[in-house]
Inverse folding.
């Protein structure tokens, strides 16, 4: 565990000294606020809920998460620091988890910066605190899965820009795929599969304040699968 | 300490390392030599577990690195070629990270209190910083350091946790002459306690630092052993070199006659000395060939000195294109 934490700390240090992290944070906070106050029109609605604010998160993560994960593995291989990292006495899965936790902590820090929005709006109406907590739980879960997906794409790429494009593309598809039935007539079973695969449809319940354990299981399962596959790719690269 | 058993590694159809076998004993500094593309870097990556072999095995202190990678890697310190480092970190942060990551396996067994362990780790960190001479830059970001300092930081990272095996790929490539001298001293010192493998294109460096050498060519080992023995064996394999001079000097007739003498393989006048450097054929009976020649030509020998081949010559001969089929 010491090795995993050491790697997490190193990832945090690198992220905090990297401009894309600050740009991504500024983008997330300002885009979410613009959406919520100007487009969604929170102040014009007579409802005390942050649903609109959190509903925008999956789409914003399509750009924000790849900006954090693009360096992940692709940059290690490009700079050659993978030789330093992969010759440490750590198993591949420990390396993957260490890197994942480092990036995830950055995302949690970003989400903590959204708390002032909630605190500032609280006096304006009777907000359901339980719903807000559930929304945050859902946001952490969906971002956790997005980070795992982003790092998986990064391990398959040899440079940051491909890793960013690949992860953003994959997240966009996985976010919108569940809504495909709105614009296309799809056979029932196919629509069901697409809804199940989609990151966004599982997020709906959390946004409404429902702690859906099937959705929780879906995010944890997909996150674990991505982390496992990343470690498989790392091992495969050693044998390539 | 390092046991390489019939190791093969290919990239597509190209065999980068082909059935390589050798053993390195502890407390020796061994040089890994070979021309560009010989497979040195691939071999080093196989020894450190960065890559796994397609066939064969690499044992570090008896542990198969592909079967038990974490245990085997815990015994290895590695400086990759060009010393890749994280430019955003400071040397201190990097060494702290490597120390924490490397300390994982040993800290599980340690029974001393955490504070004491932390204190010991910090002491060890400072000692490595002192040893590689990066005290004055330890809090600057690595991206802002010169290549020489980066190289030293990379060596420092390899020395953390006092590994039993040190693998250094071109460890002095970016250092100035004074730093190179200090690094060589450090490598020699490390060789007293650890098994050290150094790869370098600078043959004089290998001769200055290493007691043994492994010579690679086209992915195969074409020579190995201690450097003095390599020189001797090579001389017997390719023919002895003898410096010879006659009382009357030499002229074209003597050169023609000597070069056509049975047992003489090569003949080169040595500039400025009036002597000739004669390479005999491997099966020739040493200086007797030259005594007979002098007697037959009515010449008096004034010099007859066997010459020792340098590592450069050993390298040149072993890695010549016609060595392998």
């Amino acid at each position: 565990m010491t090795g995993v934490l050491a790697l997490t700390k190193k990832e945090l240090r690198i992220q905090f000294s990297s401009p894309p992290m600050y740009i991504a944070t500024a983008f997330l906070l300002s885009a979410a606020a613009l959406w919520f106050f100007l487009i969604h029109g929170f102040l014009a609605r007579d409802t005390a809920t942050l649903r609109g604010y959190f509903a925008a998160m999956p789409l914003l993560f399509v750009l924000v998460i790849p900006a954090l994960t693009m360096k992940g593995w692709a940059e290690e291989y490009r700079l050659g620091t993978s030789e330093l990292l992969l010759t440490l006495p750590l198993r591949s899965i420990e390396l993957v988890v260490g890197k994942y936790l480092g990036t995830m902590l950055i995302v949690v820090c970003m989400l903590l910066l959204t708390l002032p929005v909630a605190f500032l709006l609280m006096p304006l109406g009777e907000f359901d605190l339980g719903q807000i907590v559930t929304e945050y739980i859902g946001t952490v879960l969906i971002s956790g899965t997005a980070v795992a997906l982003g790092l998986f794409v990064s391990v398959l790429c040899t440079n940051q820009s491909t890793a960013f494009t690949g992860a953003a593309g994959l997240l966009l598809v996985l976010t919108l795929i569940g809504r495909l039935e709105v614009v296309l007539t799809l056979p029932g079973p196919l629509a069901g599969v697409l809804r199940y695969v989609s990151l966004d449809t599982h997020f709906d319940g959390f946004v409404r304040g429902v702690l859906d354990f099937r959705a929780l299981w879906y995010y944890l399962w997909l996150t674990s699968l991505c982390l496992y596959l990343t470690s498989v790719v790392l091992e495969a690269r050693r044998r390539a | 300490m390092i046991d390489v058993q019939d190791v093969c590694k290919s990239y597509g159809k190209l065999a980068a390392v082909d059935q390589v076998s050798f053993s390195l004993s502890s407390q020796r500094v061994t040089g890994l030599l070979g021309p560009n593309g010989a497979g040195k870097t691939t071999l080093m990556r196989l020894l450190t577990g960065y890559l796994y072999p397609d066939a064969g095995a690499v044992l570090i202190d008896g542990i198969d690195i592909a079967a038990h990678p974490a245990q085997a890697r815990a015994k290895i310190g590695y400086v990759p070629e060009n010393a890749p480092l994280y430019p955003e970190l400071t040397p201190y942060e990097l060494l702290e990270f490597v120390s924490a990551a490397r300390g994982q396996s040993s800290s599980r067994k340690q029974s001393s209190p955490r504070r004491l362990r932390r204190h010991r780790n910090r002491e060890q960190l400072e000692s490595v910083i002192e040893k590689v001479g990066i005290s004055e830059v330890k809090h600057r970001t690595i991206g802002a350091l010169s290549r020489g300092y980066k190289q030293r930081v990379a060596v420092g990272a390899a020395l953390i946790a006092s590994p039993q095996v040190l693998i250094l790929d071109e460890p002095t490539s970016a250092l100035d002459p004074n730093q190179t001298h200090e690094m060589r001293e450090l490598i020699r010192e490390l060789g007293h306690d650890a098994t050290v493998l150094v790869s370098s294109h600078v043959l004089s460096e290998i001769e200055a630092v290493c007691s043994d050498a492994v010579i690679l060519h086209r992915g195969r080992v074409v020579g190995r052993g201690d450097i003095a023995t390599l020189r001797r064996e090579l001389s017997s394999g390719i023919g002895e070199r003898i410096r010879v001079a006659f009382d009357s000097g030499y002229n074209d007739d003597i050169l023609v006659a000597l070069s056509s003498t049975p047992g003489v393989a090569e003949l080169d006048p040595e500039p400025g000395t009036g002597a000739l450097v004669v390479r005999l054929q491997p099966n020739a009976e040493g200086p007797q060939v030259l005594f007979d020649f002098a007697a037959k030509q009515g010449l008096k020998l004034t010099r007859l000195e066997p010459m020792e081949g340098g590592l450069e010559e050993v390298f040149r001969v072993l890695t010549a294109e016609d060595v392998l089929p």
Summary: Residues 104-109 of chain B have pLDDT under 50 and may be disordered. Residues 8 and 18 of chain B are 5 Å apart (CA to CA). The domain at 2-225 of chain B is CATH 3.40.50.300 (Rossmann fold).
